[in-house]
């Protein structure tokens, strides 16, 4: 488990700057005007800051860009980190500035001279989100991060926000840790155990085992995991922070490892399939955040946990399986397994909880990466209002999302000669036909979004809020959606 850095809020004390032995962070606006902390640093460093601010290097910096003055004369600090940021910068820019702090943080403590910055909370959140490194399986001494002391003119405001900021970051870190874990560690049983431990935060957690899933008729989900020695499971997490209203439902694909089954994937890159449970990881992270900040809403999170392996008991291409809904599915490709997991869990979520709306998340198709790359998740929806609310939340949180088309004209691709539908169409519009498949398991009139997060769940380069690897994409957007739409 990856811990957050320690953050405290305190009142601005200019006298602390000279003696601080770690990093000191100051903010300078676009015109080069120094605030009180900047003027103190400039005096201590015998004008070094003023000379830098007057240089072309500073002029060329964009908002939230940063540079270091290493081992400044007249100060005990190892470095002064200068961030170009207007005092009244908007929230996304302030968070970007905080990411720069988290990116540069080392073992020493960091003194952040936020002063009268409008969005000290977003500066802090950015630092929390970026100061992440998964080290659970390193044998060397783990890298440690120093603590963050954010000095502000009104520290009581930031102090009152810290619990919620930590709840958001804890949810993101939980998702990143789950997505990063290797499959020999994060088995279906281990995954379920980690979710069951969330009861300590006030969540109600129920684990449905294979016999219960068989009795419920979740045969499409069970068909995915029947080639693996790891038992398939469905985990239900309930947060009851609202009134008597029906809950909002989040559903996640949790394929802890995907070989492709009998339709075996190529060897190259298969190691990345430890992240094929990314949808379930996001649902888990959101539920943790909601519980930690005691959200005033009713939300249920359901995840289908399976492992897709080839064996003598594995599902074969050409098999026909009956879903919990009762529809039959011809399995054309066992590597199109995520939609089979989601089909049963989506139907179960609606039948049992009668939710006000449903959002499912899955690392579902390579086609969405071809279409949108690694900057945006694919958004498919049957409801313009819910979709607009989610896209607004994602935009405010800086998590890329792009609405994709749907329509009955795509259904011909998944028409089967021997069953009600096929689980995969042709290569054309692969992410759309996957969404069309899922829509068949949504009740008439149920507001629904399918999020294909294959391109954003884990990436090979740094992102806006994370180092390369698991991103935790979606936790912040869904948390904001709940806060702005359902708690309000």
Provide structural commentary.
The protein is an alpha/beta fold and 488 residues long. It contains 16 helices and 19 strands. Strands 7-8-10-9-13-17-14-15 form an 8-stranded mixed sheet, sandwiched between helices. A 6-stranded mixed sheet has the order 1-6-5-2-4-3, with helices on both faces. α5 (91-104) packs across α6 (120-130) and α6 (120-130) packs parallel to α7 (155-180).
Relevant terms:
alpha/beta, eight-stranded mixed β-sheet, 19 strands, 488 residues
Produce the secondary structure layout:
Blueprint: E1 7-11, H1 16-19, E2 23-28, H2 36-44, H3 48-53, H4 56-60, E3 66-70, E4 79-84, H5 91-104, E5 110-115, H6 120-130, E6 148-152, H7 155-180, H8 188-196, E7 204-208, H9 210-216, H10 219-225, E8 233-240, E9 248-258, H11 278-292, E10 298-308, E11 320-322, E12 328-330, H12 338-353, E13 358-362, H13 367-372, E14 377-381, H14 384-397, E15 401-403, E16 421-422, H15 430-439, E17 448-452, E18 458-459, E19 469-470, H16 475-487
Parallel strand pairs: 1-6, 2-4, 2-5, 5-6, 9-10, 9-13, 12-16, 13-17, 14-15
Antiparallel strand pairs: 3-4, 7-8, 8-10, 11-12, 14-17, 18-19
Helix pairs in contact: 5-6, 6-7, 7-11, 10-12, 11-16, 12-15, 14-16
